[in-house]
């Protein structure tokens, strides 16, 4: 039988400030990882994971995503065409054949 004792800081304030991190012991984080990550994303409140009272990780909400631009035409201004596109290249012009 294994007994795990983990020291946990308990806040006496029910309505904590949004930026104040919530303290979660590592055993609880391991058991409820997906739910905790979802809560961080939803509330925006960071979480500190502790092991025996010592901080081991901080989980912060993701930064806002930049809007994606379409990839079609994204290189339209960056390239240039030199020569004739339709004319076949002579065998002597290929570097691999030299």
Please state the average pLDDT score.
79
What percentage of amino acids are in beta strands?
A: 15-25%
- Main beta sheet, described? 3 strands, mixed
SS summary, helix count: 2
Structural class: alpha+beta
Helix fraction bin: 10-25%
Q: What's the β-strand tally? A: 3
Helix and strand succession? EHHEE
Quaternary state of the chains: single chain
The unreliable regions are: 10-16
- End-to-end Cα distance: 74 Å
Instruction: Please compute the radius of gyration using only Cα atoms.
Output: 28 Å
Largest sheet strand order? 1-2-3
- Which shape, going by the Cα principal axes? elongated
Description:
Helix content is 17%, strand content 15%. With 98 residues, it is an alpha+beta fold. Strand 2 (47-51) and strand 3 (54-59) form a beta hairpin. Residues 10-16 have low confidence and may be disordered.
Descriptive key words:
alpha+beta; three-stranded mixed β-sheet; 98 residues
Summarize it:
It is built from 2 helices and 3 strands, in the order E-H-H-E-E. The protein is of the alpha+beta class.
């Amino acid at each position: 039988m294994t007994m795990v004792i983990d020291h946990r800081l308990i806040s006496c304030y029910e309505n904590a400030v949004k930026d104040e991190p919530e303290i979660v012991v590592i055993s609880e984080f391991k058991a409820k990882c997906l739910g905790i990550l979802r809560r961080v994303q939803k509330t925006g409140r960071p979480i500190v994971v502790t092991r025996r009272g010592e901080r081991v990780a901080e989980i912060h909400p993701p930064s806002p995503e930049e809007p994606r631009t379409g990839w079609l035409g994204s290189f339209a201004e960056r390239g240039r065409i030199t020569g004739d596109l339709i004319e076949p290249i002579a065998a002597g012009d290929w570097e691999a054949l030299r």
